[in-house]
Amino acid sequence: MRAQFVLSEIGVGLRRNLTMTFAVIVSVALSLALAGGSLLAREQVSTMKGFWYDKVQVSIYLCNKNDAASDPNCAKGAVTEQQKQEIKGDLSKLGVVDKVYYESSDQAYKHYKEQFKDSPLADSLTPDQMQESYRVKLKDPTKYQVLQTAFSGRQGVQEVQDQRSLLENLFNLLNGMNIAALCVMALMLVVALLLIVNTVRVSAFSRRRETGIMRLVGASSFYIQMPFILEAAIAGLIGAGFACVLLVGGKYFLINNWLQEKIVLINFIGWDAVIKVLPFIIAVGVLMPAVAAFFTLRKYLKV
């Protein structure tokens, strides 16, 4: 009987405040979709960092005869065979180095022609203008400073370049976008909370006579609050369900059927990452409105 009464009160409350309930559902759905999207975006950035940082190398570019006049680091002329052997020997002694690849000027010229074959400069370059280099793969890509300190300014070395630094701007941009999404999500959550509070207040005010009678005949505070809390929780659950649909749809349509075909160089997150986020979205969608309703109703239990 009690359960039937609570369910009937929930139905009455949802029908009376249909417009505000719909607004709560939409705001909860959008805010939780943004929250889930932000979590997935952070996971995507971490996945990309792990994928690309494992492949980046540190390049030690050696001086050639054409650099002597234009680059102060090569003022003493092109690198000598002895200097090259010393650099290679010192690289093998460093504990942070995993592998060392040597690229001659001819190999550099060939790679340049392959990568920039449409560039107007490609036909004007000659192999002797290209620099020899050592491409170093580190055991830990964050230990770049060890090579920077050991070889920058050394005779025969023109520049020590970390490919990882070229990716930092991209990752900083992605992290900035993620922070912006989190800020929008926080704003949407505040809007959702305000709508939930107002909806509960309106519902409690419209049924103040019934709740007052229930209080006078000895009904417990929990029993009086239960229909209002469940109304808010149901609206939040529906909103969380829509948020989950948006996340799953975004993964299927946006990532799987579009981005993966357009951008093949990026290792996108899988379904396991999405599935891990969905229970969190549902839990927040139910608990946030229920808790907000509980604290909002405390003042309305006084007769």
Automatic annotation (TrEMBL):
Subcellular location: Cell membrane
Subunit structure, as described in the record: Forms a membrane-associated complex with FtsE.
Keywords: Cell cycle, Cell division, Cell membrane, Membrane, Transmembrane, Transmembrane helix
Biological source species: Streptomyces axinellae
Membrane topology: Multi-pass membrane protein
Homology family: Belongs to the ABC-4 integral membrane protein family. FtsX subfamily.
Domain (FtsX extracellular): residue spans on this chain: 56-160
InterPro entries recorded: ABC3_permease_C, FtsX, FtsX_actino, FtsX_ECD
Top-rank taxon: Bacteria
Lineage: Bacteria, Bacillati, Actinomycetota, Actinomycetes, Kitasatosporales
Role noted for this protein: Part of the ABC transporter FtsEX involved in cellular division.
Primary residence: membrane
Signal peptide: none
Name of protein: Cell division protein FtsX
Transmembrane feature ranges: 21-41, 179-200, 221-254, 274-297
Gene: ftsX
PANTHER family: CELL DIVISION PROTEIN FTSX (PTHR47755)
Location of the ABC3 transporter permease C-terminal domain: 183-299
Pfam families reported for this sequence: FtsX (PF02687), FtsX_ECD (PF18075)
